[in-house]
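Feature request disguised as a bug report, sorry. It would help if multi-protein outputs had a clear separator. Right now it looks like this:
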Amino acid sequence: DRHGRNAAAADELIARAEGPGTLEVLDLDVTSDASVAAAVAAAGEIDVLINNAGIAAAGLIETFTIAQAEQIFAVNFFGTLRVTRAVLPQMKRRGHGLLLHVTSELARIVLPGLGIYAASKFAIDALSECLHYELAATGVQSIVIEPGTYPTTGILAKLLAPADTARSEGYGPVAALPQQLGAGLQAMVESGMAPDPAEVAAAIVALVERNERPLRTLVPSPDSDNVAAINSAAAAAQAAMFHRLGMSNLLRGG
């Protein structure tokens, strides 16, 4: 908010706001039922929910403690579920609304050293797609946007590191992959070669402004063609199962 720990970020957002209307910034902790309820109540009617809160983490799966894995899922998955549940009643009551879940290409493919993070993104992807079908009769849409890697100094500074690094013993060269990945991302930022996160924001705006939206939207990247092939194969398998079960009416818009 304008006075709490996020005051500087709120002021910057308001200063950068352009166009008609007003921008109000609300404090929201996606891990707190009370915080989410207060923010939704203060916001009033919500037409679009963008689930983008997340924790990034790099390290071998075994080197993260259970508590750390729970921390990642508390924000990335349960935070998404919590805010979605908070806005759905009003959207269903009005008969329209958009749930837009920002996942990642790592919701479809994996990289060694990013397993816990990818697992949380896979979970969000499954949640989002199932909502897409479950909400078919309500007028509310649930869709997914899948960006590639957009490293920024803020993300790298908050990257969660594993607490039980002794567990990396015995992995051979694979143990060095998370550090190599982090160094590569840092080098991208420092060299100015990192892709611009504004590309993701522009893709989100384009989806919000559309009437017909696909279930999944990829932001172009070196791996997006391969992820698109996975998405296409998965959509065909999903459709085949729905046809077999007599649920073809749920296959709307991709």
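(second protein starts here, but nothing in the output says so)
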Amino acid sequence: MKTVNLLWFKKDLRTFDNEALHEALKSGIVIPIFIIEPDLWKLPDHSSRQWEFVRECLIDLNSSLNQIGLKLIIRVGNIKEVVIEFMQHYKIGSIYSHQETGNKWTFKRDTDLRIFTKKFNIEWHEFRQSGVIRGLKTRKGWAQKWEQHISQELISIPSKVNYSIDIKSQELPSSSSLNLKKDKCTLRIRGGRTNAICRLNKFINYKIENYQYSLSSPLKAFEGCSRLSPYLTWGCLSIREVVQTIRISKKK
């Protein structure tokens, strides 16, 4: 059986400054996957409005992956079922992903997957992408660790791969097919890295100087805030990329 590595996209929907993608490609053939978990989307902290944003992010991500010769494989279900599916056709060398800062449900899902991967001798490599540092016994030295992480060199978009694997992807479901309650918002931010870069540039060029004065003002916050939170939450931008971009802009 052919050995492959699964690149599990979670809240890191980008190809730029993506350590999991970078490291996975060093290890051989990579199959990028994103799993739509219906049980997760039923929770009260998820909504149709959020799903439509994520759906747009996934379309943009797949376009970016296509440019380097990869294809995003969509599955609806749970991660263990998907890994078992691929185990029927390939030898799974490793799983690569970023650590997820989510809710109790996602934490338990990851804990269960860790047990599963150990049982089947599959290595699971997780990489940190935010200020959260797991397993700290004390906050002493946290700021230095955060600065060390945030100052690391940004990882470029990988070169095009020289292999091709023909795997059929499921279609991206609509909100209604996921049985998500309508959550209409006429001013909803549009998803995807392309939109994220436009929003970041707009913030730096037009808003950043007044940001500290607008942040807490009921009258100014709507226009004065960066509105980057959704893009950071779903990883269209990395926090390291945003911080370094802002620091460079302040020097000009």
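Even a blank line would do. Unrelated, but nice: The first helix runs from residue 19 to 26.
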